[in-house]
Amino acid sequence: MNTDRSQSAPEAQEATTLMPTRPNQSESHAVSKARSGSLASSRTGSRTASLTGSVKSSRGGSAVGARSVGNMVKKAGTRVAASSAAAAQLAESASSNSPAMKDVQSASDNRNIAIDRVGVKDVTYPIRLRTKDGGEQTTVASINMYVALPHHQKGTHMSRFLEVLNDETSEPLTPDRIPAITRAICERLNAEEAHFEAEFTYFVRKLAPISKRPGLMDYRVKFACTANGKEDFIMSVAAPATSLCPCSKEISEFGAHNQRCRIEAAVRFKEMVWIEDLVEILEKAASCPVYAVLKRPDEKFVTEQAYLNPKFVEDIVRDLALALEGEKKIEWFSINSENFESIHSHNAYAQITRDKR
Amino acid sequence: MNTDRSQSAPEAQEATTLMPTRPNQSESHAVSKARSGSLASSRTGSRTASLTGSVKSSRGGSAVGARSVGNMVKKAGTRVAASSAAAAQLAESASSNSPAMKDVQSASDNRNIAIDRVGVKDVTYPIRLRTKDGGEQTTVASINMYVALPHHQKGTHMSRFLEVLNDETSEPLTPDRIPAITRAICERLNAEEAHFEAEFTYFVRKLAPISKRPGLMDYRVKFACTANGKEDFIMSVAAPATSLCPCSKEISEFGAHNQRCRIEAAVRFKEMVWIEDLVEILEKAASCPVYAVLKRPDEKFVTEQAYLNPKFVEDIVRDLALALEGEKKIEWFSINSENFESIHSHNAYAQITRDKR
Amino acid sequence: MNTDRSQSAPEAQEATTLMPTRPNQSESHAVSKARSGSLASSRTGSRTASLTGSVKSSRGGSAVGARSVGNMVKKAGTRVAASSAAAAQLAESASSNSPAMKDVQSASDNRNIAIDRVGVKDVTYPIRLRTKDGGEQTTVASINMYVALPHHQKGTHMSRFLEVLNDETSEPLTPDRIPAITRAICERLNAEEAHFEAEFTYFVRKLAPISKRPGLMDYRVKFACTANGKEDFIMSVAAPATSLCPCSKEISEFGAHNQRCRIEAAVRFKEMVWIEDLVEILEKAASCPVYAVLKRPDEKFVTEQAYLNPKFVEDIVRDLALALEGEKKIEWFSINSENFESIHSHNAYAQITRDKR
Amino acid sequence: MNTDRSQSAPEAQEATTLMPTRPNQSESHAVSKARSGSLASSRTGSRTASLTGSVKSSRGGSAVGARSVGNMVKKAGTRVAASSAAAAQLAESASSNSPAMKDVQSASDNRNIAIDRVGVKDVTYPIRLRTKDGGEQTTVASINMYVALPHHQKGTHMSRFLEVLNDETSEPLTPDRIPAITRAICERLNAEEAHFEAEFTYFVRKLAPISKRPGLMDYRVKFACTANGKEDFIMSVAAPATSLCPCSKEISEFGAHNQRCRIEAAVRFKEMVWIEDLVEILEKAASCPVYAVLKRPDEKFVTEQAYLNPKFVEDIVRDLALALEGEKKIEWFSINSENFESIHSHNAYAQITRDKR
Lengths: 357, 357, 357, 357
Fold this sequence. Notes:
- Four copies of one chain form a homotetramer.
- By secondary structure, the first copy, chain A, is an alpha+beta fold.
- Chain A folds into two domains: 27-101, no CATH class; 115-355, Urate Oxidase (Roll).
- Helices cover 33% and strands 29% of the residues of chain A.
- In chain A, strands 1, 2, 3, 4, 5, 6, 7, 8 and 9 form a nine-stranded antiparallel beta sheet that branches.
- The radius of gyration of chain A is 28 Å and the shape is elongated.
- Mean pLDDT of chain A is 80; it is low at 1-17 and 19-84.
- At the A-C interface, strand 5, helix 9, strand 6 and helix 11 of A face strand 5, helix 8, strand 6 and helix 10 of C.
C-alpha cells in the first residue's frame, strides 16, 4: 500500500520501545532477522557510492539498466531466482533516496469527494494494559486506525499509522489514555479527524465461589475513540455468563433450561471507569457468573444460584440498564445480551441504548 | 426460551409453505421425523382422556404425581433413560392445555425500562429470491428479527418470530418485499416497531471476459429493515474484486502489488434497485472484477486491465461514490472497501457515507 | 492463478447446466452481465480478422504495440482509465489464440517433489441435494477440490476444477454420487488421485414435540471423498442439541446446568446412509434435541426431558458410539461432542474413532 | 461440567503463580473480585460451625431446609432475587464438605466403550513464551487439553485440566517444555494418554528491507503434543507472505497478479527448533515476505522482488519442502500454502506431508 515521504534511516528510539519484552532481549535478533531477508542479505555493507550513483543515473536517464534487469529475469524463466548481482542492484535502486520517487498519495484529487475514514484495519498487535490494582497485563489486540481525508488530497500515508502505534504503545495503556493516542494520529497524519479502535481479550483473576480456587476469566474489550478537536471515547466490555429461563422454570415440574450468554456494555463516561468495574456490573445482571475453575461445591452453588435467579434476555438488559443508570460516572450506554439458547439452534437477543446527558 | 400463548394444534397450511422444495416432496418424511423424536414417539395415539385427566388433576392439585416421576428418575441414576411410562406421562402433562401454564412473558414489568430491540438472532434459514431476469434462486440466510418492547411488558414471544418467518418466506423474496415482512412482525408480535435483518450469499452467472466461459460469482448481501409506522429499508451488497496499488506501480520498475479486495455498498433507494444492479456498479469501481473461471487469455486480460487501472482504496470508494451520486434511484449510501494487502498482514480500508436527500 | 490450455469459445451446454434456477431464467441476463464488464464491453462484435491479426503480429514480432500501450497508460497517471482504443486492443491481444501464450503449468519440474494435494479451496457454490423423501433442497456449499501432482509436472490447471464443478452439479446430489464427482476430477485433471470436499447447511423439517408446530432445523454436513483407483467417501453431520450435566443434577437441590452442544458424526458406510438417518441417530444421543419453534407446552416438555436424561459429554459420545456400532450399514465412524458449557467460558469435548472393518 | 473430588481450600501457591503480571500486582484485587461475587459476598467470614452444621444435618436428613428454600424462591416469582438469608444458607450448603456429595464422574461405566479424547476445548488463556534471543513474550492462547478415558470410568474431572494449566504456565514456555506439560496432564488426571494443544499469535520484530524501519509481524503458531509413555510433539507456524503468479507474468505484457498468501509448516523435530527458525524458512519460500511498516523505497523493493520471484502455490510448497528436507533437526513435516487469489473469490491451495524418518 501507499507509504510515506520520510525515508530516513531507522530511528534507534523507536526500535527500543517497540515490543513489550523483558530487558534481556538483545537487538541482535532483530538485526539477524533483517539480514535473513532474501535479497536484502546480499547487499549488506555494499551501499557504495559508485553503485548507488550508477542506479540513480539510470533512473534519471532512460531507466534502461533496471528495466533490463527485469527483462533479463523474466526471460530467465519463472523458477530461477534473481542473480545476486541483479538483486543487489535492485536493493540499491530502492534504497537510493531518489528525488524521482513520486509521492502519489500527496497528489491532488479533483473528484471533490471527501473520505470519512481511511486507514489500516485488523492490525494484530501486542498491547500492555494497566490493571485496576496497579499491575500490568499484556494481551493481543486487533486494531483499526483511520483518518478523515479532505476532498482535495489523493491518499493518506498508511505506514504512519503503524508508526504511531509503535510509538504510543510503549507505555501501558489505560482507558483514559486512548484519546491522547487518537489525537496523536491526527497530528502525525495531519488530519482534522482520527479514529482509533482496539479489540482484545482481557483477563481477570477470579476465585471460585465456594472453594476459592483461583482461575482466569477472559473478557472481550473494545476501545473506540474519535478525535476531531474534542474526543469521544467509548469502552465496551463483554462478559460470558449464565442465563436461566423464567418461563421454562415456571411451567416445568423440574429443571429449567439455561445456557451460556454474552452480556455486553458499551459506555461513555465522565470519570475513569476500569474494565474491572464494568465486568462486575455485567456479571451481576446475569442469572449467575461463569468461572474458569469450579470444584463440586462450586458447581452446586452456581447451579442453584442460577435456578434461584431466572432471567429472560429482557431481564438481563433491564437489570443492567438499571445498574448503569445508577452509576454516576457513566453518561451514555448501549448494552445487549445474547443467549445461546440450549433448546434452539438460534439465539435470543436484546438491546438498549440510553443517553443520560 | 419464552414461548407463545397460542397452543393450538399444528396448522396444515403452515406446514405446506414451510420449505422451498419441489412438489414431489411428500409430507411423510416430516411426520416420520417427528415420530422419531425420542419420548414423543411412545405417546403417538395415546392421548386418551383418562391419562390426560390424571396428569391434569395432579397439576391442579399437589403436583405430587409429576414431581415423583422426576424424583424417581433422578434416583435411578444418570444413565438410565426415563421409563416409557414416565415419558408418556410427561408428554401428556406437557400437551395438556392446562390453564395453570402461566404466560410469564405477558406479565407486567415495573422496572420502567423499555427495550429497543428484543428477538431472535442468527436464525439459519433457506430463502428464495426473485432474480432480476425473472428467475429464482435459493440460498441460505442468517436472519435476525427484533421488536421494541414497551416498558410495562415483561417479555416478547420468541416463537412467533419463527412463525412469521415460516409464513412470509413461502413466496420468493425481492428487496421491495422486505418492508412488508417487517410490518408483519409488528402485527404478529403486536409491537410498535420491528426490525428484520437477513444476510446471505447471492450468486450471479458471469462469463469470463475473453473466453466467455461461464462461472458463478458469489456476493454477500444484507437486507435490513425497520418498520414503525413507516419503513426504512437498507440493502447492502459486497463484491470481491482486484485492487492494484498506484504508488507501487509508479515507483517500481516493473510490476505493482495487487490483491483481492472487498467492496461494499449499503443503499437506501426510492425506486427498486436489484442486487444485480449494485454488483455491476461495485465491480466498475475496482481495478478489475474477479471471476470464477478464467482461462489463459482471460488471465492475461485481467492482469493487464488491473495494471492499466491502478486504484488506492481511496480511489475505489471515491469512484463508487461518484457512481452512486449519479444514480437517481439511490437516496443514501454508505460504502467501504477493504484491501487485503498483498504486502502487509493487515488491511487498508476506506469508508464514505452520504445522504442525498 | 494458472489456467488451462484449452481456449475454445464458450460451450452452450455448460452454460445451460450452470445454475439451479427455474426454467424461466433467460440467458439474456448472463449476457448483459458479460457486456457490462468494463473493457470487454467495447469489443463486442469486433473480433474481426484484421484486428486480431495485427495484434498477433505485434506479439509474434517485437511486441512493441502492446508494450507501448502499457507505457502510455502508465505515464498518463494513475487515475486516468485506459482509453477505449487501448482497451479494445488489449482485449484483442488477450483473445487472440496466440501460439506464443506459453502453458507454464505444463512445464516440467526438476525439484523431484510430488505434491499431495493442490487445487482450489473455499469455492462458494450453490448445490442441490436429493432429500430422503424424494424431494430436493438447494443450499450453499464451501467446496475444496484437489489433485495429487506428480513430481515432474510444474503446476495443475486450476480453472478445470471449476469446470468440473459446473458440469457435475447440474443434477441433484446424493451422498452416493460424490465418488463419481471425485473420479471426474481425476479424469478432467488427468490425475492419479483427486479429493472433493463440500461443507454446507442442510435443513430438515421437524415438528415441535407437543404442539406439532413445524420448523426448519439446520445441520452442518460435510462430504469428503478421495479417488485414486478406488474411492473413499466420508460423510459428516453435526447436530445442535441440549446436554444436561448429571453431576450438577446429582449434587444440587434443584435445577441442573444445561447448554447447547454440537454432536458430530463422520461415517464411512457400505450401504447408502442419508443425512436424515444420521441426524436421527445424533439427536437420540443428546439429553434432548433442539427445535426451531417451541410453544409453551413444548418448552415444558424439552425442559423436563433434558432433566430426566442427564448426560456428560462422555455419555453423549458413548451412547452415539453404541448406536453406530449397532448400525450395520456403517463401517467406520469418528464422532465428537462439544458442550458450550453454561457455567464456563470454555467448552467440554469428547471424541471417539472406531473402525468396525 | 463435572468437577473434582478434592474440595480443599484454595492453595496460596497456586494463586501466586496464576497470572503473568508484574510484581506490583497485589493480591487485594483478586480478593475483592471474589467478594464482589453476588451471593458469595454475603457469607464472607460467616462460616460458623453452627450454620454449617445445621445445613449438613438438613442434607443428611430430609433435605427439607434447602429444598424449602428453593420452593420458596420459585413461588416468589421469577424476578425477585433470593433473599440474602436464603443465599447465605445456600452458600453454606454448597461449601459444606458433605460426604453426601457424590462423585458422579468416578462412577463405573458398563457400556464398555473407551473414549479417545475427553477434556476442555477453547480455553482462552495468557501464556508467556521464551523468545529465541533470550527475552520473553506474552500472548493469548486458545488451549485444548484432553485425556483418554478407559472404558470402565464414567467421566473425567474437568476442573483439573484448568489447574494443570494454572500450575504449568507460571514459567515462560518454550517448544521443548510442552511434552512435560502434557505428561503433567497424565499425572494429574491419572490417565494413560493426554493431549495438549495451544494456538496463539507470536510476534517477531522485523525491519523494513530498505528503510530499516522496525515493525512487528504476527504469526499464528500451534503446539500439539500427545503423551502416552512417550511424547509426540508437533509445532506449526503460519506466516503471511506475498505470492506472484508465474503464468500471469509470463502471458501478460505488463504486471502480474499477486496476493497475500498464508504458508504453514507443521514439523516434528529431534533437536530444538524455535518459532523464529521456522518463520525464516517459511518466508524464504514465498515470492516475497510481508512487513508491518513499509516506506516508499521498501514498497518499491518488495514489489520488484515479488515480480522477480514468481511462484505458483505449487512452487511455494515445493521450495519449502526442499528447505525442510535439508534441515537436519526436522524429522517430519506437513506443509501447505493458501493463496487468497486476487483474480478469484476462491483460494489456491497446495499441501505436502513427508516423513524423513
